[in-house]
Amino acid sequence: KQKPQSGMARYLLAKTYQAKGLAAQYSQELGEAISRAPDLLPARLELSKSFRSGGDPKTALRIVQGAPVKQTGLAPVVIEKNWSFLQLRDFKQLKQGIEQGLKLGRSADLLLQQAILSLYESRPSVARSLLEEVVATSPQDLRALELIGVLYLEGHQQLAWLKRISNHAGGFPN
């Protein structure tokens, strides 16, 4: 059976493999998609994320850094690079990436990255403030709520956490 040749067709084939749970074929087709269409940003970002999820942030970073120059300053590219820097514990590059991203706008991902960096820098009150901003602006984004929970539990405030999470859940219809 002959495979499609265009980058977009390979990307769509990758999405089919993803839907079927075929991770290796999904990644392979994403790679084929960006080799045929280097400016196909969704495929590049998904391939990078796939490598990060698989525990290979160096390859993920290499993939996202391979984006065409016109895309390197776009928020999704900056954010994806930052996640790789975080996994690699390259806090200097992460901090620079967060600053670059925040110049483009405040997003849940950038605020989460900044909060996690603040935790590594032993600044839990700064982290909590950033996480609260994420929860206020993106209440369905459970990543921030999960980190807030860690802060409550580290402070031995289990009952306060239960009350907080109950209040948060009460804001959503069943």
What does this protein look like?
- The chain is mainly α and 174 residues long.
- Helices cover 75% and strands 0% of the residues.
- It is built from 10 helices and no strands.
- It has helices at residues 7-19, 23-36, 41-53, 57-65, 75-88, 91-104, 108-120, 124-137, 142-154, 158-170.
- The longest helix has 14 residues, at 23-36.
- The protein is globular.
Helices, strands, pairings?
Blueprint: H1 7-19, H2 23-36, H3 41-53, H4 57-65, H5 75-88, H6 91-104, H7 108-120, H8 124-137, H9 142-154, H10 158-170
Helix pairs in contact: 1-2, 2-3, 3-4, 3-5, 4-5, 5-6, 5-7, 6-7, 7-8, 8-9, 9-10
Q: In terms of structural class, how would the helical and strand content be classed?
A: mainly alpha
Q: Helicity, in percent?
A: over 70%
Distance between the termini: 47 Å
User: In one word, what is the shape?
Assistant: globular
The strand count comes to: 0
The proportion of strand residues reads under 5%
**Would you tell me the overall average pLDDT?**
93
| Largest sheet data | none
Low-confidence stretches: none
The succession of helices and strands, N to C, reads HHHHHHHHHH
- If helices are DSSP runs of H or I spanning 4 or more residues, what is the number of helices? 10
- Radius of gyration (Å): 19 Å
